[in-house]
Amino acid sequence: MASKLFSRKHLRIFSLKPQMLDEAFCYGPFNRSMQRRWKKPVDSARTRLESRTRDHRLDKLMIQLKNLRLALDLHAVISQQRNGYASLQLLLRWRREIGLNTEIGAFLKKYPHIFEIYVHPVKRNHCCRITRKMADLVGEEDAVLRENEPAVVRRLKKLLMMSMDGTLNMHALWLIRKELGLPDDYRSTMLPNHQSHFSLETPDTLTLIARDENLAVASVEEWRDKEYTEKLLAEYETKYAFPVNFPTGFKIEKGSREKLKNWQRLPYTKPYEKNDLHPITNAERLEKRIVGILHELLSSTVEKMVPLERLSHFRRPFSIGVNLRELLLKHPGIFYISTKGSTQTVLLRESYNKGCLLEPNPVYSVRRKMLDLILAGCRGIVQTENAISLVEEDSQGSSHGSGNHTCQVDNMNSMSQSESESSVESFLEESCCDSSENRIR
């Protein structure tokens, strides 16, 4: 019996190919296509981040700020050199570390108000230096940061008062130093001047010595007082409310208005109040407390924005036990996550209108001037060159007593300058052609 069962004829039946088996069961009730059709769509923070209503003005602003950040990183590389300039070969070597994905020559040619390319008179190679206009703005920003030290101290004290134990990690503060308006050397220059407010018991922890109850007022509370006095709204409408501003084209689902109205009236523990005195057991009230903490943290920054990955470093000191991306996407009228630029950035929607800050501060004003140089592009370069040539002609015409030798020297200088400019233009055209060929490939 066994010999008949395992004979060559019966073994051929069991050695069916997988394709034949698929064809045999393709008409079953639970085949692969029906299972794929019955499968529920994935609903996660990533899918909702892609399918949400976008704010194109804020996304465009983040792209412009990314180009400004790249320009400032190149400025840092150039300023670290001994003679204040860097060759294009050196910048090409540092291109990947900076995060520049385009050709270095095309990027430098794109912003002539910031970078000046010339031929070195001795080495005869192409070099780059920062323009006087950009250098003045960088120095102005550093001076404004030093002058606004009292405002920075108030921001640090407010952040430490919001933390659970009055301490913050120094690494987390270092990551958002630009957002808070702190200078790079704040640890050695600013903190020793305010030892009555802060202490460094350990090298990596900043501790608040004493609370200041005069600072324990959130920015949203000031907005509520203004709404209550100017619009004459009822107290229960504005006592626990947040400013809500949906992006253009946002479609509110059915029943969401009523839910939002009930959420606005829901009481919660304020950011500067200790949660231990009034423990929260309701999930919605706990969520609203976290929204208040994030709102106050973003309000304490200079430009009302913080990268999302750096914001996650404050989850433990602020007792944020929820998924930040899920929470931010749940309140699109208060926060906006921009995926443009190099990273995901959280912005406070109420603080911006048409891509500009509604209440600018001195630090933001200087950075906006830098951004204007990025937005200017190549505009105004031809007019400035013509103005310089006219000034040179007027100066030559006014000096009638000069000899022919000086005229010959001027002609030689102008010829060498034109040769250097033509060589720079040919080099930049070659770099742009190489970049376009690489893109075509």
From TrEMBL:
<dbReference type="Pfam" id="PF11955">
    <property type="entry name" value="PORR"/>
</dbReference>
<dbReference type="InterPro" id="IPR045040">
    <property type="entry name" value="PORR_fam"/>
</dbReference>
<feature type="domain" description="PORR">
    <location>
        <begin position="53"/>
        <end position="378"/>
    </location>
</feature>
<dbReference type="InterPro" id="IPR021099">
    <property type="entry name" value="PORR_domain"/>
</dbReference>
<dbReference type="GO" id="GO:0003723">
    <property type="term" value="F:RNA binding"/>
</dbReference>
<feature type="compositionally biased region" description="Low complexity">
    <location>
        <begin position="414"/>
        <end position="426"/>
    </location>
</feature>
<protein>
    <submittedName>
        <fullName>Predicted protein</fullName>
    </submittedName>
</protein>
<feature type="compositionally biased region" description="Polar residues">
    <location>
        <begin position="396"/>
        <end position="413"/>
    </location>
</feature>
<feature type="region of interest" description="Disordered">
    <location>
        <begin position="392"/>
        <end position="441"/>
    </location>
</feature>
